[in-house]
Amino acid sequence: MFTRTYTGLRKLCSRLGRDSEGSVVSTFALSLVPMVGLVGAAVDYSAANNARTSLQVSLDAALLAGAKDGTTSWTDTALNTFNANLNPKTATNIHPAFQLTSTRAYTGTVTATVPSNFLGVLGVSSIAVRVTGTATVPPSTGAYYCVMALNRTAQSALQLTGNASITINAPKCVIQVNSSSGRAVDMNGNTRIQSVENCFVGGIVTVGNSTISPAPNATCKPIPDPFANYPRPAVGACDFTNYQLSGNKTVTLQPGVYCGGMNFSGPVKVTFAPGLYVVKDGIISESGGTFTGNGVSFFLTGYNTSLQLSGQADWHLIAPANGPLPGFAIFLDPDGPSGLAGTTSSLSGQAELYFEGIVYLPKQEVTVSGTASAFAPSPYTSYIGDTLRFVGNGDLVINNDTSLTALPLPTSLMVQTGGRPILTQ
User: Fold this and answer.
1) Which of 34, 159, 169, 286 is 20 to 30 Å from 201 at the Cα level?
2) How far is the C-alpha of 400 from the C-alpha of 163, rounded, in Å?
């Protein structure tokens, strides 16, 4: 009896081993491979997630510190704060990067890799990790920058000289001069500055009947270029090349790409139709005439690009409220221009120099002058340049009151000093 039972059991086991459908051991062994893979992946991805969380905490702290700093050194402050708070966990190859956006938001990105322990058997040696963040400083006072000299070391970065009077009326305006020179601001003659705040990093020298109110803020720090990362308009093929107009002529010009600049001479009468005028590789110059335009922006880019307005003409330009450069009357590409002629711009008016909107000429020495008491100021103009000179032999008046214009005020011009930074992403 026992012998028959034993023999039958051996035959049954032998048949089970030969039958693949009944091989429980083989099936279970094969099932362990994906199960172990899934468990290993969970472990590796958990480590990557922990590293990602830690990097995000460090980045958020860095952005808040950088936004609170708000100066031209904000990226250094952000990087130092990031490194001080960094707990990399298992992350390696950590690379933080910071950038100021066109709306003056403080953004950051961190990339890193987390080595895998289990996924390596599947050919995955590491997991890429990336975190981003954004901090902003909501304006708290309603003040904005209406005059900015961006150069950080120049003597006379802001210079006012007048035999009659130069007046800056700016009920909500902050005048910002980044230069740390002991003579960063130079006022000579019958010049006057009246604004909400005069933020001069360096010193001021006054001669003659010059007055300034309020007194310069002694704690000011340099502010980064608010439009360094502003979106530039696309530049297409040339619509006009070396455009010239002279004599007693009346024309209406159309928007487009003007390669080689624009040259006007004589008593011309020019109306600029609404739109964007791209001036590439050349100068806008004139020796007289009358120039008007409503809803007009000039984008200057390329080699030897600048403005050379002689002082013998009348200009009356109003920037557009929308389009590629809303609120800008003149926008110089901050990545250029190149060439000697591209280092300076001059805006002069004998009877009228009327620019309603922002005149943005970074990396250039900008001279603004008026030579007649009939000078008619616009309700709102902001001048931004590397250095600025305001020269008047008549009554030069610069107004900055956004309540008197329909043009939009870019967020990046709003004063953030004293505001509380917040994370928005």
Assistant:
1) 169
2) 23
Distances in whole angstroms, Cα of residue 280 to Cα of each of 1, 82, 240, 256, 309: 108, 41, 10, 11, 17
Q: How far apart are CA 205 and CA 159, in angstroms?
A: 10
Give Cβ neighbours of residue 245 (< 8 Å, ≥ 6 apart): 251, 263, 264, 265, 268, 270
- Does 360 score more than 90 pLDDT? yes
Q: Rounded to a whole number, what is the distance in angstroms from the first to the last CA of the chain?
A: 81
The region that residue 239 occupies, defined by phi over 0 for left and psi between -120 and 50 for alpha, beta otherwise, is alpha
Half-sphere exposure of 234 (CA within 13 A, CB side): 2
Measured CA to CA, the distance from residue 358 to residue 229 in angstroms comes to 16
pLDDT at 40: 59
Q: How far is CA 338 from CA 62, 161, 193, 305, 347, in A?
A: 35, 29, 33, 8, 20
Across the chain, mean pLDDT equals 85
Sequence ranges of the domains in the chain: 13-136, 144-413
At 82, which amino acid appears? F
pLDDT value at residue 1? 44
Q: Is 245:267 a contact under the CB 8 Å cutoff?
A: no
Cβ proximity of 258 and 279 under 8 Å: yes
**How many angstroms separate the CA atoms of 409 and 253, rounded?**
27
* Strand pairing report for 144-149 and 126-136: unpaired
Nearest to 197 by CA among 143, 137, 139: 143
Has residue 330 got a pLDDT over 80?
yes
Which residues partner with 115 through β-bridges? 126
